[in-house]
Amino acid sequence: MKVLVLGSGAREHALVTGLAADPGVDALYAAPGNPGMAQECEVRSVAMTDPEAVVALARELAVDLVVIGPEAPLVAGVGNALREAGVAVFGPDAAAAELEGSKAFAKEIMEAAGVPTSQSVTATSLAECEEAFDRFGAPHVVKADGLAAGKGVVVTSDRDEALAHARACLAEADRVVIEDFLDGPEVSLFVLCDGTTTVPLAPAQDFKRALNGDEGPNTGGMGAYTPLPWAPEGLVEDVIAQVAQPVVDEMARRGTPFVGLLYCGLALTKNGIEVIEFNARFGDPETQAVLQRLTSPLGTVLHAAATGELAQLPPLEWADKSAVTVVMAAENYPADPATGDVITGIEQANALEDVHVFHAGTSTAEDGELTTSGGRVLSVTALGADLADARARAYEAVGLIRWRGEHHRTDIAQLAEENRITIPQGGSR
Ligand code: GLY
Q1: What CATH number is given to the structural domain containing 352?
Q2: Within 6 Å (CB) of ligand 1, which residues are found?
Q3: How do residues 249-300 score in pLDDT, each as one tens digit?
Q4: CA of 406 to the centre of ligand 1 (A)
Q5: Do 341 and 358 sit in the same domain of this protein?
Q6: What is the pLDDT of residue 119?
Q7: Which domain holds residue 373?
Q8: Residue 178: enclosing H or E segment and its boundaries?
Q9: Do both 280 and 379 map to the same domain?
Q10: CA-closest residue to ligand 1 atom 3
């Protein structure tokens, strides 16, 4: 099978690494890729959100499968164009990607499908926002309606900050979503979908704030781990039954089947599972951890989803290990990341057993040196016998890598390792 991966981040690097390990994948390409992916496959340039350009590249390479990493090409209709051209594609059409592209649409689908989620108001004026803040109380949750690379959400008890974000969202679009805050630990469950059948991957948890202790600004994600030793028994089955399958059924009923990865962002509240958000693609950085544990052949699995054959797939197999990912970020990320700093130590880190360093914001300078070129620069992932072992390996690897101004959280997976995560009890359903 020949496979093309679209994207240039650590998530796509992890997909490339997973696909390269599948003996059924005999040719692998990434576009536009990054220097890390270039060590594992042929990298081509492409304007990722230009459907015609992607179709032309897929035809030139004669690939059997295109795996779309980020959300922007999905919302731009790259999935539609590839399907129309007869190319199997892992990633939904634009209409189904609206589950991520529009928070208001996602709420509408959840209501129609009877999926538990927070109460919300889609406001078109600041006065409506103020009313919703009064109704729901603090902390206030304010979500931009369109794509915002995970940074369109502000959760704050500071009403002025919430109003300022609402104002900024209303200036960008004509609506903003205000939600009731969901109290309880968060879970990311990735679900493979072929339009009809759903197959869950292993649940993970990510860390969205920049600083230890979930302090500081929201980011694209500073780390992740899997599995979740604290998760209640039957969690995955419950999410499939209460969330993923009803949504996939509702999308099919509307004539916009969901084919690809349904990212269920959940809170385990005192009232049970509640949906915080959906994404229409693999999560970053959870993917880097989750795929490290998957031992089933990734190309075969994604191809089955793309071609409506998930029901025929044997059960997925997983290494009986834990995985921890630590994101290493550039100076001033997320506000205004510095670029051009020389990175050292990746080879030494990769030489450690069960450690993989996935590239995101890296570039090769003219003199051949690897430099920073984005906010989240690297995702350092380690497998271990348990979370404590995986954490220790991941942080040992992080300690070998350096550049000016580098920063990372030191508490990824720490509460889980110390068995300090609890689910609120005593709800009404
Ligand atoms: N981990 C958050 C996201 O992928 O959007």
Answers
A1: 3.90.600.10
A2: 150, 206, 221, 279, 283-284, 286
A3: 999 999 999 999 999 999 999 989 999 999 999 999 999 999 999 999 999 9
A4: 21
A5: yes
A6: 87
A7: 322-418
A8: strand 176-179
A9: no
A10: 283
